[in-house]
Specification:
The protein has a single domain, classed as TIM Barrel. About 30% of the residues lie in helices and about 15% in strands. It has eleven helices and eight strands. Helix 8 runs parallel beside helix 9 and helix 9 packs parallel to helix 11. About 50% of the residues are buried.
Length: about 375
C-alpha cells in the first residue's frame, strides 16, 4: 500500500500557485520578468546542517478553508511548500504556459507528470524549459510577496515504484489509467537525468537568475526503491548521474509486512529508529551523488490519528536527524481527506493542546 492515496492532493492549479496568482508573468518573457517539547539531543557524529532546515507543508495548508488557521499563521517563518501539478500530460500544448506551482512567499518543491516517451523524445523541451524559467523568474526578488522566497525545486513522477503500481486504476480527471504511462525503473531514471539536464540548460542560459534545483522522491525500503544490485528495483539515477537533491517521504507508521508494502518499517518512535531508517537513505544518496553530504529532503511526513501523541516527538526526531546529517528540507503532509498515515491540517490546528503545532514551531526556532 502507498503511504498516502494522494486523494488529498490539490487538484490541478488548486492551492499551488496557479496562473491566477502569477498574472505578472503572462505575456512577459523571462528577460522581462527578470526586470521586474523536544527530544534530548543525540551525540552528533555527523555534520550538522549549516544552512538550516526549510520546514514546510503541502500547499493546501497554506490556504485552508475559511476559519482554519493557515500554515504561515500557525508556524511562523516556515516557508517550505510541497506543490503538485498532478494531471499527467501527453501533448506539449497541454502544458504550454504552465506556471511553476507554489504559494507566494514560499520555497516550493514541485512535482509534474509528463508522458515519459514524449519527454525523452524531446517533444516537451520548449514548454518545460519555459516552465522552469517561470520558477527561476519567481525567485529573483524574495522581498516581493508575489514571488518565491527562495530556490524552487522540481521533480517528475514522485514516488515512482510505489505509486502508480495498479496499471488498471483510472487517473482522476483524465480518460487514462496508470498503465498508459511507462514508469519502469529504467525509464524513470532516464527521465530524471533528462530533466536535470533541462534545468541545467535553462540555468546556463540565464546565469544571473537562481536555478531550479532538480531531484527525485522515493518512498519505502531503499532496497526496493534504489537497489544497487537489482535494476528492476531502482528508480534513482545511478552513480555518475548526480541530482541536485534526493528526497524521500517518511511516515511514522510502516505498512504491515504481509501486505507486500514497499515500506514495512516499525513505528519510528525513537531517534534511533528514525536514524536506522534514514541512514540507509543517506548512504544511497552518497553513493549516487558522489558527495559525502548530499542535499537530503523529506518531502512528506505525518502520523495517523491513532498516533497523535507520538507525532510531535517523531517530527522533532526527524528534524534532529536532518540537522545532524546536512538535511535541507522537511515538508509535512496533511491531506484532506486524511490517509492511512496522516491527519488533516484542520485536525492538528483544532487540537487542544496543539502539541503538533508546538513541535513544529520548536523545529523552526531550533533548526530553521
Amino acid at each position: 500500500m502507498s503511504a498516502e492515496s494522494r486523494t488529498g492532493q490539490p487538484a490541478e492549479g488548486t492551492s499551488s500557485g496557479g496562473p491566477s496568482r502569477r498574472t505578472f508573468l503572462k505575456g512577459v518573457g523571462l528577460a522581462g520578468a527578470a526586470g521586474l517539547a523536544a527530544p534530548l539531543l543525540a551525540t552528533t557524529t555527523a555534520r550538522a546542517a549549516t544552512e538550516g532546515i526549510v520546514l514546510g507543508a503541502n500547499a493546501g495548508c497554506w490556504s485552508p478553508p475559511t476559519g482554519t488557521e493557515s500554515w504561515p499563521q500557525a508556524v511562523k517563518n516556515a516557508l517550505g511548500c510541497r506543490s503538485y501539478r498532478d494531471k499527467p500530460f501527453k501533448q506539449a500544448s497541454d502544458f504550454a504556459g504552465a506556471i511553476f506551482p507554489g504559494e507566494p512567499g514560499s520555497k516550493p518543491v514541485a512535482s509534474i507528470r509528463p508522458d515519459p516517451a514524449n519527454l525523452l523524445n524531446g517533444d516537451f523541451d520548449s514548454v518545460i524549459k519555459d516552465f522552469i524559467a517561470t520558477g527561476m523568474a519567481l525567485a529573483i526578488d524574495p522581498s516581493n510577496p508575489n514571488n518565491f522566497a527562495g530556490t524552487p525545486q522540481l521533480t517528475v513522477w514522485h514516488e515512482a515504484g510505489n505509486l502508480y503500481t495498479d496499471k488498471t486504476a483510472p487517473i482522476p480527471k483524465t480518460n487514462w489509467t496508470w498503465g498508459d504511462f511507462d514508469l519502469s525503473p529504467q525509464t524513470v531514471r532516464s527521465m530524471h537525468v533528462y530533466m536535470q539536464d533541462l534545468c541545467n540548460q535553462v540555468a546556463t542560459a540565464n546565469p544571473t537568475l537562481p536555478r531550479v534545483e532538480y531531484g527525485s522522491i522515493i518512498y519505502g525500503e531503499i532496497s526496493k526503491m534504489a537497489s544497487d544490485t537489482d535494476s528492476t528495483h531502482n528508480w534513482v539515477p545511478d552513480p555518475g548521474y548526480p541530482l541536485d537533491w534526493y528526497g524521500i517521504d517518511v511516515y511514522y507508521e510502516g505498512d504491515p509486512p504481509d501486505t507486500g508494502s514497499t515500506s514495512p518499517h516499525p513505528d519510528l518512535a525513537t531517534y534511533d529508529l528514525v536514524s536506522q531508517y534514514m541512514d540507509g537513505f543517506l548512504s544511497m544518496a552518497r553513493n549516487r551523488s558522489g558527495l559525502t553530504w548530499p542535499k537530503i529532503n523529506v518531502c512528506e511526513c505525518n502520523a495517523n490519528v491513532t498516533n497523535d501523541g507520538s507525532r510531535p516527538l517523531f517530527f522533532e526526531n526527524l528534524a534532529l536527524w536532518l540537522n545532524n546529517n546536512g538535511g535541507r528540507r522537511m515538508l509535512t503532509f496533511f491531506p484532506d481527506p486524511a490517509g492511512p498515515h496522516s491527519v488533516t491540517w484542520e485536525h492538528v490546528v483544532a487540537a487542544s493542546p496543539q502539541q503538533t503545532i508546538e513541535a513544529l514551531n520548536y523545529i523552526q526556532r531550533t533548526y530553521g
